[in-house]
Structure formats: structure tokens, C-alpha cells
Amino acid sequence: MRNSPLKTLLLTFLLLTLFLFRGWSRQIQTDDLPVRGLAIAAPQKEGVDRFVDFMDNGLAPRGVNVLVLRVDYNYAYESHPELRNEEVLSKSDVRKIVASAARHGIKLVPQINLLGHQSWASSLGNLLREYPEFDETPHVEIPENYEWPNEDGLYCKSYCPLHPEVHGVVFDLVDEILTVFEADAFHAGMDEVFYIGDDKCPRCGGRDKAELFAGEVSEIRNHLNLQGKKLWIWGDRLIDGKTTGIGMWEASMNNTHRAIDMIPKDVVICDWHYERPDQTPVMFAMKGFDVISCSWRKPEVGLMQVEDMLRYRAYQTNEMRGRFKGVMLTVWSGAASFLDGLESYEGLDSEDQVENVEEPWVTFVNLFGEKVPQVKN
Description:
By secondary structure, this protein is an alpha/beta fold. The chain has 12 helices and 10 strands. The strands form 2 sheets. Strands 1-2-3-6-7-8-9-10 form an 8-stranded parallel beta barrel, surrounded by 6 helices. The model is unreliable at 7-30 and 373-377 (pLDDT under 50).
């Protein structure tokens, strides 16, 4: 009976159906994956109403239930007004976003980039501009015309995790943003940290980079845990880039990967892979972490991550399956640029919507389906 022709025929039919109709993943219901997320920059002040409309009529009907908002310094912080951008979101602006999320059961996870990403190209970030003493590598100057690669190995600056005053400042921001967004989780970024444990740092020089990274993750996690809130981070620094062959961007080549065995297991890992659906979610789950697979511009990668997540949840032990939380699309432009692209794409006739175009809005439509009119009660 085990090898009956009927059973073989049925199995073949199912596999062919899966292969030929990969668009099936568009029809996934929220219950199939606990997390169906979008990570994107918070809108600029003038774009709040448009973004709320997108939440109401673009995210909610598609069953998107997690929204990671990259806020950074785009908020009118009262604790440290010196760190605000020139144009920022007010409390009333944020309340509009919070109200939409509450209407539709969308979990808000605000993000401020901590540790790494304290500069970009030729621009120093607000934190190190106002508090230069926090700089891990003050001897590395920001060039007027940035190029990569460069002699200093400068991608983005980091703050020194052992500076005695840095957490007093950043935790003020974290607490304030969690309050205004009424959130029970915070995303600290912590991806692509190339500067850590610099030899010239009087505090970090000569220390184990994995221990430094783990110490910073634990410091942030412990601060949040006292408030009953969770820490989310990107997972790349916890992957061995050399052994896996994944390399220096989506994994670590500066030995921070060993921190995976040094940090609390209740940290949520957002595992981003943009070129291939690397199978690292299995590693994170086997280490005891909840994990979310994250895609970007390549629709086929996002779809394969959906398929993988469903398979992980179907064919694992009871202890493992609940750690595979779902998928999230990441967007690295501004919110307005993404919405412009999405609206333009959705305005095309179906035959003109080329599904393999490498744009995040195409991945979005492939993952979460075509626009569905909001049903009014």
C-alpha cells in the first residue's frame, strides 16, 4: 500500500501543481503564517494621510499583520530634541498610524538603528553628530565623496557599545518611541555592523567581537524585558559568512557570528536574504529563536521563502514548528517612493505586470496578492 500507484500518482500531481502554479502563495490566509509583515521607513509628515490610507486599503485587506516602521530620528523626541530631523512626525501624526493599526489588528514594531548604521555614505548620523564621543572609530573621517570599497573599510559608522553614557541617550529614545507607538516590541536594526571592537577604541580594543555584539544585544533586550517588551533584530551578524559562503553582507566575516550562543533566546530574528532563499531560518530555529524570513526586490526569492516557511511549519517537531513565524518584505526606499511604485504597478493591465521585475512593490504584490477593495460593514 505504501508504494501504491494511486498514491504515487497523487503525489506527482501535487508536486506538479506546486511547481506550475507558484502563484498559489498569494492566496495564503493570515492563519497559515503568524507573521505577514512589511518593514519600511515611516512616512514623512506630509505623507502620513496617504500612508494611513495604504494601511487601511492596501495592507489590511491583504492580511498583512506586522508593520516594522523605520523611524530613527523622524519623530519629535521630547527627551532629546537635539536628535530630531528637520521635519519630523508629531504625536498626532503617529496617533493616526496607531489608530489604523488598531482598527485592523496590525502589530506595530518601531525601529531605530542601534549600534551600526550611524552614518550613511558622506553623511554622519544624528547620534554621532550630536554626541561624537560615542563614535567607535573617531579616527575614521567621513569622506566628502564616499566610495566603496575604501581604505578605511568604512561602510557605516558604529557607536561604541561600552561608552558609559550611550545607553542613557538611546534608551530615552527607545522608551519614548515605544510609548507613542503603543508597541510591545522594538526593532533595533543591528545589521551590517563592520566597525566593532576597533583596536584604537580605548574601551573595546582587543575585546572579543562576538562578546561585544552579544553584550549589546543583551543590554537592549534586558532594558526592554523590564518593561515586558520584546527585541527584534536583523540576523546577519549571527551567521558565519565564511563557513556558509554567504559572505560579508548577509552574514558576518568579523567573527560576531558566535554571539548566537550568547544572547537570550527570546530575541526575534529577522533573517534577510535577497539573492537566494538561504536556509538559515532552520539554524536560528534550532538554536531556539523565533525567526522571520525577509525578502526585498526579487519576487521569486520572496515566494520561495513563503514556501519554505510553510514546509518548515508542516514538517518539524512540535518544539520547532512554532519558531518559524512567517515572512516579511523589506523596503529600503522612502515610504512615498514605494507607494508611487506600487500604485504605478497596480495601474498596469495584468498582461503588462511582469512578475520577475526586481522591485519591492512587485515582490509585495506577489507575496500578498492584488489590491482588494476594503469591505465596509
